[in-house]
User: What shape does this take?
Amino acid sequence: MDQRTLPREYRTRAGSGAGAFVGMGLVWVWGCYQSATADRLPPWWRLGLPVLTALFIAFVAYTRPRRFTALDERGIAVRNLLRVRRVEWAELHDIRAEAWPEKARAIPGTPRVRAYAYLRDGKRIVLPCVDDREVEAVRTEVALIRSVWTALRGPGWHPDPGPAPDIPG
Assistant: This one.
């Protein structure tokens, strides 16, 4: 990958996560039934809990397809559920694909490998939609992103002399 392939964007595939939303809907229906038939709950709770839960599910359903990771000549833009964050190439310390812990992978539908960007100040940013659920060969894609980062981070870039961020493995 080189600068000619930029801009590049990773987005959620159509239909990705549909099973999770069906599962959340079934749990919501069950919760509504339990809430409505419970004698000890106050009336405001019987109505409030299903409404708040439905609003949360609607929020996730609305924002999940809008997640993305975009690459351009200036850096990486990442949109998660709440905001867009822009990181310049020179601000990055490393970009890696990492396997999720075994316990997390036991949950159906979770990615097994995710991409992360490590900032020079030690913070780690998840790169949404750069995982093995959305990208066929995520490790190859991360290697390509790293090659763009190497080319565009600037001639004066060097690792920080201070302590390196806590990067596993």
The domain at 3-13+67-152 is CATH 2.30.29 (PH-domain like). The chain has four helices and seven strands. Residues 14 and 159 are 39 Å apart (CA to CA). Residues 43-63 form the longest helix (21 residues).
